[in-house]
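User: Please predict structures.

Assistant: First:
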Amino acid sequence: MFRMLVYPFLFFLSYSVYAEPQTITGKAVKVLAGDLIVFQDETKKNYTVRLEGIDAPEKDQEFGQRASQKLDSLLSLSEYQVEIKYENKDRKGHLIATVYPYPKEEETVSFNKILVEHGYAWAYRKYSMHYVNDEEAARKEKKGLWAKSNAIAPWDWRKQNK
């Protein structure tokens, strides 16, 4: 009896831990923050999508509005048609994804990377090391929020403003 209950659970757990990345195409319909969008797939189903590996300033934080505007302008260049690649969800159920303009070419750079490269977001080292080099380059070149020496990381800002 024990085996009948445990083995299916272990199979499910191992499958969910090693799930393959999923790719969906559709349209970004709204920018909620510099690292958060509402995405609509081809069946008109909406998802809230957090950009993987980055953390942009909060809306009420200095540079927060500019980060949101930058993401919106990037999306408008692709006429809001995007491809998202995700493996996980956050604790709120948002898809954690890398977002690309659609159609995606082999050398296409993600919006996640562009935001960090241009100083509109931090590499979110707590969850990913993907954009650390991009952040360091933006810091050296004093791009975006790095033009000011007192930039406060969003995770620190959230703690101070609970």
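Second:
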Amino acid sequence: MKQEIKVYNNSQTPADKEICDLLARTIDNELTKAECKIWHSHPVWFIDGNPIVGFSKQKKGIRLMFWSGADFGEENLNVLGEKFKDASIFYNNTSEINIKDLKQWLEKAEKIQWDYKNLVKRKGKLEKLK
């Protein structure tokens, strides 16, 4: 796990740190070609400069967000973005994380991508990459 992601995870409560560590390890193991960094104050993984998946601490818990998740067809990713193609799920305990589902979502995240990298250049218009 990259040092800056460890620092972020270590800044969480013990229960939230466990969730963040499990998510980061799983994402790192599944998205081996992705680059990760702290982006807008939370961990995000990118493929070719395009944001794919990330997580952040919010009032409802740790939010795992997939930038193109609305097109995954996954009912458990039930928090859909209103303006873009993102979808999320919240976790408050590691026991809530279904690793099989998470791996499936990460596989879809590689295959289904909207071009967020060039969103500003296209004046807010999303185009499908994959």
